[in-house]
Amino acid sequence: MTGSVASADELARQEAAYLAIEPKLGAALEANRPDSTTEHVSIALPSYSVSETILSHYGDRIPSLEHRYLASLLMPSRIPAVSIVYISTRRPDQAAIDYYPGLLSPERRARTEGRYRIIEWNDGTPRSVAARLVSRPDLIANLRAHIGDRPALIEPWNVTEAEVALAVALGVPINGTRPELRSIGFKGNGRRLFAAAGVPTPLGREDVRTTDDVIGAILAIRAEHPSAPGVVIKHDDSGAGDGNVVIDLAPLADAADEIAWLRERVDGLPDWYRRDLELGGVVEERITGTRFTSPSVQADVLPSGEIRVLATHEQVLGGPDGQVYLGCRFPADPAYAAVLASHARAIGEQLAARGALGRFGVDFVAADDGSGTWTIQAIEVNLRKGGTTHPYMALRNLVPGRYEAEGGRWVADADGTTRSYSATDNLLDPAWQGLPVAEVIAAVTAAGIGFDYRTGTGVVLHMLSGLAIDGRMGLTAIAATPAEADALQEATRRAIDALV
């Protein structure tokens, strides 16, 4: 939890109060369907609730990360009975707010009018949206009055004690897993979950805390797979690759003393990394192949226990060791998309049995050794929304349709055609820093590559507030095929480059 730390008694009271609210979630989700005529409220809470260390790391980029979820303003065009409340630590540029409804047909755009409110609460502290909001009883009172007696739900990015405190103050349930269950998604517990679900996972060991633990885990992996090319050390409680370190084992073959060589590598890791490892971690074999990909699945656990697979993606990773999430492509390769969906359902059933609710994601590795057969292994479960959520949200709201898990494709309701997309949060050029949001939107539109409701294809921009910070923004390029989506992404870069 970010901000002030509540006592154990306060947390217990808060948990009990929330448990009395949570049963309302089923009715709110039932109202939040395209065919529903029940007036209801959906609170978009992109509250980046992480440690103050991570918040400080992202610094003034936090609002830009929150603004990825402005696509929620499009929801009333698909669900006319919904009222959207979008809450952020910084109000987006008005040009960005106006941009999203402008992507819709005139008829669908009219459905959004008067159907959303944007709330900004910027108190200058390094706290999440939820942690800031609970300290403002006047804003809470206004929100309660706005909701009235309508069904309502909170759609969070993740759920900590701060989100629960806000839910209790509003009397509104959260479509997410309660914080006391969050350790289910830790790396070690994820591996145990995969085993219980019968889903393959790489060779590895949980409950790793010390240098000797890491060395023991590596030796055990090599004993079972002597040709293992490397290992990944992961902090139990981490995400987006931030707690991952890769050790290449190829040089080990020339080492005079294997254990001494390994000890030097592990002891040479940064002090902060080894301190965090003392809280728990895992060591896994690093999977490689002639062909290698990092697919993922996004799914929901419904209050009924039903598991709904929403989408599969190919993740685009980068960073020094290829462990940092940069973007994604939808859908995942049809060669294994159905397998991913099947594994996600099995994992979701295990999550539901443990009390999880709402959105979850599962990251996989897929490798082909040249035989033409893919090996699929699960490596991580996330009990929250993630980097693939907002691109999926843009597609779902702009091209209403359904994901066919068996075929691994999105089918549009309007005409049965299919869609793909290529998305990134890291379209970056320092030369773009300070470009006006309105000019960037206009440049993409003038280039003829902006989203066109008549064709259901084109580029949807997000994170536009990042332009003022470091020249960084994001996009989702929607097209009929993956290749066309990639081409749209490159065309967007060229259109913006023309402004500088």
Distance between the termini: 42 Å
State the assembly state of the protein chains. Answer: single chain
Domain unit count: 4
Number of helices: 18
Q: What's the count of strands?
A: 19
- The CATH architecture name of the largest domain reads 3-Layer(aba) Sandwich
Uncertain regions spanning at least 5 consecutive residues? none
CATH level 1 class label of the largest domain: Alpha Beta
Give an account of the 3D structure:
The protein has four domains: 8-176, Rossmann fold; 203-285, Dna Ligase, domain 1 (2-Layer Sandwich), CATH 3.30.1490; 288-383 and 386-411, D-amino Acid Aminotransferase, Chain A, domain 1, CATH 3.30.470; 417-500, TATA-Binding Protein (2-Layer Sandwich). The chain is 34% helix and 24% strand. The chain has helices at residues 8-21, 25-31, 52-58, 62-66, 94-99, 106-112, 129-133, 137-147, 161-170, 187-197, 211-224, 258-267, 271-277, 337-353, 389-398, 437-446, 467-470, 482-497, and strands spanning 40-45, 82-88, 116-120, 152-156, 204-205, 230-235, 244-248, 281-285, 291-293, 295-301, 307-318, 324-330, 358-368, 374-382, 401-404, 409-412, 418-428, 458-462, 472-479. Strands 9, 10, 11, 12, 13, 14, 15, 16, 17, 18 and 19 form an eleven-stranded antiparallel beta sheet that branches. Strands 3-2-1-4 form a four-stranded parallel beta sheet, covered by helices on one side. A four-stranded antiparallel beta sheet has the order 5-8-6-7, with helices on one face. Helix 10 (187-197) packs across helix 14 (337-353). The radius of gyration is 23 Å and the shape is globular. The mean pLDDT is 92.
